[in-house]
Amino acid sequence: MSQQDELYNSILADLDTGKLLLPTLPEVALKVREVVNNQDVTAAELADIIVTDAALSARLLKVANSALYRGRVPVESVQTAVTRLGLQMVRNLVTSLVMEQMFKPTSRLLEKRMRALWEHSTKVAAISQVIASKQPGIKTDEAMLAGLIHNIGVLPILMRAETIPGLIEDDARLDQLITNLYPRISEAILKNWQFPQNLITVAAEHANLNRNSGAEGPDLCDIVQVANLQSYFDTEQALDPQTRHKVLAFEKLGIDTGISVVELDENSDEYQEALALFKNF
Q1: What is the pLDDT of residue 187?
Q2: CA distance readout (Å), 268 to 12, 265, 274, 281
Q3: Which ranges of the chain would DSSP assign to H, the alpha helix?
């Protein structure tokens, strides 16, 4: 058995037995999600949790005043932002805004990989937001979060690979290992976090190019699948046009398989705004 097979089997075995060390959400995101599940929570109570994290508070105000979400009057307090955006949207936005903390490398060996993973995740999140804004019934904040966490399962794979001599430097072997494993591990992580089923489905199925939800209209997974494929346009990872044309999600969303939504003039500013939400101050 090859070293790659051994690693693959050991990760799967640990996942099946509950021994695989899964990442946990930052504490403030856990508190926000827990509080929002309480139907009696007020905007003031949720704001009190958010303001304990100064950086998060600043970023949430930045989002509330961005072109994507702002109203006629500028938002100057976290409580006003919560009131304007709504509890459910704030829950998703807070989770998205603190997610970068989980992509910090634990060693110099992982630095390049982690940076590339975060950049890809934010790109898919921004494209997902743009696509969702054109689709009735799909929440843009949920689409952004779904795009951001669609490949969260790569994190524990990288952590485990770091313990195998030479694997981090062997891009081809590591990429194949990630491709084979990350959807299933991503699914396990989101179940562990008690995320809603539509987000779990995104993690588990977005890489399945033969997927057909069976629903009449597009769902959240269709959006992230297309966003993920479009994020690879003009790169070595891009699908060939014939294969891309067979992906049903493009048809369900009414999107040309040969054109990236972010290349369209009416979408380019919205994409840049969405991408900017994840940039450090």
Answers
A1: 93
A2: 40, 5, 10, 22
A3: 3-16, 27-36, 43-50, 54-64, 78-85, 87-98, 108-132, 140-149, 154-161, 171-192, 197-205, 220-230, 241-245, 248-253, 265-276
Q: Which amino acid is at 113?
A: R
- The pLDDT confidence band at residue 4, using thresholds 50, 70 and 90, is low
Angle at 131 (CA atoms; ends 98, 68), nearest 5 degrees? 55
Enumerate domains of the chain plus CATH numbers.
3-276 (1.10.3210.10)
pLDDT digits (tens, 9 = 90+) for 21-30: 778 888 999 9
Residue 233 to residue 130: CA distance in whole angstroms: 16
Q: Is the pLDDT of residue 5 over 80?
A: no
Q: Is the pLDDT of residue 167 over 90?
A: no
> Quick one: three-class SS letters along 181-192?
HHHHHHHHHHHH
CB 43 within 8 A of CB 49: no
Q: How many other C-beta atoms can be found within 10 angstroms of the C-beta atom of residue 16?
A: 11
Q: What's the mean pLDDT in 234-263? A: 90
DSSP for 42-93, written as a single string = -HHHHHHHHTTSHHHHHHHHHHHTSTTT--SS---SHHHHHHHH-HHHHHHH
Distance CA 30, CA 48 (A): 14
Q: Is the separation of the CB atoms in 144 and 128 below 8 Å?
A: yes
